[in-house]
Amino acid sequence: MVIPRNEVKWNMYYVYILKSLKINKFYTGVTDNLKRRIKEHNSGNSDFTSWSGPYKLIWYSAFDNKEKAYNFEKYLKSSSGFAFRNKRLISNL
């Protein structure tokens, strides 16, 4: 059976990096709604970032698998992930 293209629902998960414009620090997170999540960060509705906004989105990647997205976020928060982030994802900032 073929499902019509307009009936296929894709659940995407986004790993993202924000830069605080106030304190020049980075925040890495994962979400299934990137626009909503950035608004939450910038409106102070996020416990970890409410004190250091506003934020600018500087990088993101989309995943169609929730587990892979969370695993990549976890990697980016590790020591080798910090090095990868700094060298490959935000080196030109």
Explain what you see.
- The structure is a single chain.
- This protein is of the alpha+beta class and about 90 residues long.
- It has one domain: GIY-YIG endonuclease (3-Layer(aba) Sandwich).
- Helix content is about 35%, strand content about 25%.
- It has three helices and three strands; from the N terminus they run ββαβαα.
- The chain has helices at about 35-45, 65-75, 80-90, and strands at about 15-20, 25-30, 55-65.
- A three-stranded antiparallel β-sheet has the order 2-1-3.
- Strand 1 (about 15-20) and strand 2 (about 25-30) form a beta hairpin.
- The model has no long low-confidence stretch (mean pLDDT about 90).
Brief description of this entry?
This protein is an alpha+beta fold and 93 residues long.
- What do we call the CATH homologous superfamily? GIY-YIG endonuclease
User: Helix amount, in percent?
Assistant: 25-40%
Strand order of the largest sheet: 2-1-3
CATH-derived architecture? 3-Layer(aba) Sandwich
Helix/sheet category: alpha+beta
Note the quaternary state here. Answer: single chain
Largest sheet descriptor: 3 strands, antiparallel
Query: Mean pLDDT, nearest integer?
Result: 90
Low-pLDDT windows of residues = none
Q: Kindly report how far apart the N and C termini lie.
A: 48 Å
What's the SSE pattern?
A: EEHEHH
Number of helices: 3
- Which class in CATH terms? Alpha Beta
CATH topology description? GIY-YIG endonuclease
Mind telling me the C-alpha Rg? 15 Å
